[in-house]
Structure of DUF6924 domain-containing protein:
Amino acid sequence: MRRTNWPLLEGRTRPLKMKAWGDLDIMDPNAGKLPRERGFLAVEQDWLRIDAGSSSENPIVTLYAGDDPGAENGWEEVQEITVISTTGFLSLCDGGYEPLRKENLATAGVGPYLIRVHASDRTSHEKKPRFLIQVIPGERTGAASEPPAATIEDIAGPLLVRTSFEQPDEWTHLLLALEGCSEHYASITVIDNRAYAGFTVHEIQAQLRHDDKGWPHGILVLIADEQALVSADFPLLAVNSTPDDDDDPFRITLAAAGSFVVNMELGNTSFADWGRSTDTDGIYRGEHY
């Protein structure tokens, strides 16, 4: 999502009448992990979900950048929570994670933000729910920072590289599926770093570590691109980085990828063996251990 020209939110905005109803989110729409907890406020890195209640009326939302004296009075609920922004971008989104207006709430860039949420009439069927949201930059000096995301250059061994960041829920489901089959994916290192957004096969191969003879430290690369993440069986793009081979990439479902990695590491099969066994749509769906 292009947002380089989005202005920072400065001071108070006029009340915003929502067009789409559902939960409210203060988030980076490219965030990778959705909040798993429930409650009035639920938080994850780059993401705050606000339970908008059971009212059938569209709410009125007022946003503030920073603190606002006297804002605590006249509200039925007031809660606050800290959100860590790792990208320096936060926007008000509807339940479909679509930004409602082009204003960046992360006025101080990367770092912690105290978000204070006021609400009234969340369960009313006669009044429009009202929300007042304050986004207050936290203390930067000495604040704990998130560890840097792993990079391709730092890792040896099989890789799973994410190159599409427009499907946060699907990516989360993919990671949960990986955790459920950990014995077959134990050797894979997941690279979840926005630095590689939109990278092609050749661009990823160029980032691999190589020894002094030009051999990459990781032969196998699985790529979670847009096509992989929008399909229910997650057809990852498999790439052979061996310099002496010219095997074409092919797609392999997540369910079959564990068997593929294990057998390739043991030397039981060749990359070409798997590539020749794809279905007519170019996707390998079989399994063997």
